[in-house]
UniProtKB/TrEMBL annotation:
Pfam families named in the record: ABC_tran, TOBE_2
Taxonomic lineage from the root: Bacteria, Pseudomonadati, Pseudomonadota, Alphaproteobacteria, Rhodospirillales
Gene Ontology molecular function terms on file: ABC-type transporter activity; ATP binding; ATP hydrolysis activity
InterPro entries: AAA+_ATPase, ABC_SmlMolc_Importer, ABC_transporter-like_ATP-bd, ABC_transporter-like_CS, Mo/tungstate-bd_C_term_dom, P-loop_NTPase, Transp-assoc_OB_typ2
Keywords: ATP-binding, Nucleotide-binding, Transport
Entry annotated with the keyword Transport: yes
A GO CC term attached to the entry: ATP-binding cassette (ABC) transporter complex
Domain of life: Bacteria
Span of domain ABC transporter: 4-234
Protein name: Polyamine ABC transporter ATP-binding protein
Matching SUPFAM superfamilies: MOP-like (SSF50331), P-loop containing nucleoside triphosphate hydrolases (SSF52540)
Keyword hit for Nucleotide-binding: yes
Entry's family note: Belongs to the ABC transporter superfamily.
Amino acid sequence: MSALVLDGLTKRYGSFVAVHGASLRIPHGQFVCLLGPSGCGKTTLLRMIAGLEDPSGGRLIIDDRDITDAPAHTREFGMVFQSLALFPHLTAGENIAYPLRIRGAPRAEQKRRAEELLELVRLPGAADRPVSKLSGGQRQRVAIARALALSPKLFLLDEPLSALDAKLREAMQIELKQLQQRLGITTIVVTHDQREAMTMADLVVVMSQGRIHQAAPPMEVYRQPADAFVADFIGMTNLLDGEIAGPGTVAVPGGTLALPGLPPSGRVLLSVRPEEVLVHPAGQEGPNRLSGTLAFMRDLGASVEFRIDVAGREIVALSRPQDRPPVQPGGRLTVEFPRESCIVLPPAPPVEHA
Ligand code: ATP
């Protein structure tokens, strides 16, 4: 099966390295999200794939063909930019047919294809409407349809939904995913929104400071984050520094925990999601339980959030309202870190946890 291979793609701007040796194999038909905070190099990586930015090093291979130096227009990729870049004086149909017009396709074919694509993006009958009269979500659909006009091999989108309001954005995430599934086209989307990536992607590529930290399916990224950065970026998490105290036990601030998967010695970092931390009344001791003081509590409707001071570290727990222990801020309680909920990570570099 054909695939897109990034082999050590690097981009330098002078002495600044925007992308460090990105290597990745994307099987045909995958929906990939490049995810990371602002400035991590997502757009630069996407633009190198598109051929809009020359790599300073590395190779790009599609279907076993090296296209590292191939000009953008020969790559047959469809691209949607954050700005959409639609022609405001043209109709929706004319915008969509534009790539066909440039190729000299007959007018009847342009019209037929524009109508077919409008149907595909759920805007039937909008061919003659000026894009300036369309809503944000409708323009988004026109930009997507235009990028698909030439049946591209690869569909590339840079923050395509970021201009939409939250509700429309969620609806479009689902639509985009369904469209991609119908077409089976390999798709790469840049986003800084974790939820968006988790909703749409088959493969989430988590980046920070120009490096790929992890590339894996959404649930794997969530359940087995590769390191502290991924654990923290993918969802709020509790990170605890630990030192191996004996076989299967680790000392953390406030006590010890017995856990599977620990190395024989040295330091580790533990990640525990707030929804996995259990909260009990003070004095209910047991395995993997530590005592703490409730610093803050708030009702979130479906859950209750606790911020608990455990030996000077703040632990966040999310409990079901019915499981809430009878305690007020300033009161003591017991926090449990269940064995199967603690993810053992390599120790964090000292600079990140100074
Ligand atoms: P955002 O989500 O904010 O768009 P990003 O993850 O897409 O961020 P990039 O746009 O890829 O990040 O930029 C990565 C880094 O490279 C940034 O620090 C940026 O300032 C730098 N950079 C990008 N383009 C250039 C350029 N033409 N010249 C110099 N530095 C650049």
